[in-house]
Amino acid sequence: METRKRSNSISSITTGALGLALISLAACNSGETTTATPAPGGSAGNVSALVFVNNTGDKTLTSVALKGDSGNAVVNTIDAAKFENVALGDMQFSDKDWVFLNLAAANKVATIDPLTAATPVHEANLTTGTRPVHLYRDRNDGEVIWIMNDGDNAGGTTTPGDDLINCAGSGGGSVTVVHNSHLGPGGHPPAVLGTTCLLADGHKVAAFAENKRVFVSSETAGEIAVLDGDETSANYRKLIARIDLCKSAKETTPCNDESATPITTAFTPNASAPHGIRWSTLTKKVYSIQEGYGEIAEIDPATLAITKTFDLAGTPYTSYGISPDGKYLLLRGETTAPQATKLGVIDLSAATPAIANLTIPELDGTSPGAFKFAPNSGRFYILAGNGATATKKDRLFAFDWTTVAPPAITLLREIPLVSTGGHGFDVLAEGAGEAKYLAVSNAAPANSLTIINATDHQEKQTVAVGANPGGVMVFDSGAAAAGNQASN
Description:
Elements: E1 49-55, E2 60-66, E3 73-78, E4 91-93, E5 99-103, E6 108-113, E7 121-127, E8 132-137, E9 144-149, E10 174-179, E11 191-197, E12 204-208, E13 213-218, E14 223-228, E15 239-244, E16 274-279, E17 286-290, E18 295-299, E19 306-311, E20 317-322, E21 328-336, E22 339-347, E23 355-357, E24 367-373, E25 379-385, E26 395-405, E27 408-416, E28 423-430, E29 434-442, E30 448-453, E31 459-464, E32 469-475, H1 479-482
Antiparallel strand pairs: 1-2, 1-32, 2-3, 4-5, 5-6, 6-7, 8-9, 9-10, 10-11, 12-13, 13-14, 14-15, 16-17, 17-18, 18-19, 20-21, 21-22, 22-23, 24-25, 25-26, 26-27, 28-29, 29-30, 30-31
């Protein structure tokens, strides 16, 4: 593996990554950036790739140095007290190498410096809105982080989905925006720019269009908020439009016409339940799946019109992703009689894009698990879930995505994993977005992390980590700026 060193450049580099979660980093107790501490052997700072592991059993965060087929070892573990003893959520890093971690129960995002010292350092917890769940790196400016605040979910609450910190008057959830610069001398720790109320309840996900508009869907409300993501605009971070996803044919009562509803007034909720939004670098369109309606809508980010709809009725598909080149929507679902994970694709480059099923008998007996693409769209990976009806568990499937030609796709290896209660995984990519290593967490009782070579797909080393590891994130300095982060 190549040795990677951090750059202290302060110029903004546009990334190709989309919809990626982040944790901002402020300095220890002072508002100053951290200074380099000599690492063992005399060099200042960490220079290897790292795997951050969310230990759900004790709410700690372990970092593991990812060096190759061997020599991988725990670097440090950050104590739960630093995270206010709450469960850890989504992780991500910015193109200036700050690491961010959601603390939903604390209504905060934690910030971590992974490079300046010999071991990653927790810096500060920044206040967001009520219950931040997902975080995203802005694809147009990787120094900007958008945090989705899903709002109040306390039992018996009379304000479900409301950001009680910022939007008690207007209601609904919100988004908090954080800006960060480079690590080291002359840099500035992340700072909250502000929070925008969306007047819409429900789980939130986001996508970033090339025209610097930010699209945020709200599941309970059944709509998509459109915010101005242009930092030079007077409307930056403001709500500039909303897309009502309601369809009378899919509802028990006709939809309200919201075309004349003021931007300051909430829409009437509907049953569309948007839960998944993507941007295609190929078509330059936004795609949103409405789980309540069983369809995917294509949206023109300039006109905000729905230009195509893909009906999932009669298919097993309930969720989706997109290949990094923007060519394919990857469809995922399952059947229960017999039990099997089912995959399909929509080729967005086709004159008339349509759903095409993939035939993969090796997925028979599995339930659907997490999936990711290598940044160059050359590899596709999917975990076998641990659903109650699954007869095949503890597997990671590696496919050659360059061979996809429905119904066929080449399976490179069905990788057996440690038999545990569950797994998470991420991909180390280098060069032109090629997958080099996979890091797979093994939940209790294994409590470990397995490193897999992405060339021969063989397990190379297993490292003991904390209690009941769940989510993992591979961090590599410069990866965000280079577009070298796996995505779904």
